[in-house]
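Narrative summary of target 7.
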Amino acid sequence: MKQTKTLQVRVRDKHAPLLRQMARSVNFVWNYLNELSQRSIRERGVFLSAYDMDRYTKGAGKELALHSQTLQEVSREYVTRRVQFKRNRLAWRKSGGARRSLGWTPFKAGAASWKNGQVYHNGHYFKVWDSYGLSQYPFRSGSFSEDGRGRWYFNVVVEVDVAVPLGQDAIGIDLGLKDVATCSDGTRLENSRFYGGMEDKLATAQRAHRNSRVRAIHAKIANRRKDALHKFSRSLVNRHGTIIVGDVSSAKLAQTRMAKSVLDAGWGQLKTMLAYKCAHAGIVFKEVGEAYTTRTCSSCGSLSGPQGVNGLRIREWTCSACDVTHDRDVNAARNILAAGHGRPGVGIHGL
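Modeled conformation, tokenized:
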């Protein structure tokens, strides 16, 4: 079965100056479109489409040393984000200073290709660490992007052959902080895997004001988190035919005092990965309400679990109605699984 997939490979550091120059030009185009859109809305009450914006940037590619299709992709991305966030004006992209925007240069299908063992784009050759064998894939759309350490990556959408997952059973997932995800079968993804003993090193670098070291450690933690979430989500998709997760909102909780812990857990990233991997694999993915899933007994359905702030410390409890002992998170995952099937959390003990 054929599916699209985004491949990411590291670009050699010697190309960084050229890529930074291209990224500055992209930032200039973005900010120009930002001002153009704002003025159009304020003065004429008209929201410009990506097609409308293309007319204002047509021919600027030569002056800015950008591919013409890059200008078009910037327009489309700008309109997409403006609609997504429902804003008249988006944040400016900054090319310098402490809050500098990470470099980004998009392109459309046909604007990049594989030539002479290198990536060819906009009249330039870029050497990469090719870990995928890019020569075997026709390139679609993609981008060059920069991470927090100043390293550049080539990201491209390709078509790959994938095997259809054989799993048919269903599983529920409870999202948390100590364990990022706990499944109804007892499988867990621990938050501690993301840091791997980097907390002390990060604290030392922050106290010493070694900003480059801080950025490097943050990037390493982000890579570990992304890798762990990818492996965890892939294993679930390969083993199951239905995946049901609680609808906890990381965006809302990020506005509270738990912000650091919530963002470290990467709930939104995990749900995004599960959603698109399930869609590609042709299996069911659902988000259901998780109200009372922690307190409800997954065996008899009685509301006998711990409650309140103090109840959060209790990780294991015994139902007063049926005398069954539950792990707090596994019990919640089983209730989420039951809610995904449209039935109360009764009679699913032992799933």
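DSSP finds eleven helices and 14 strands in the chain.
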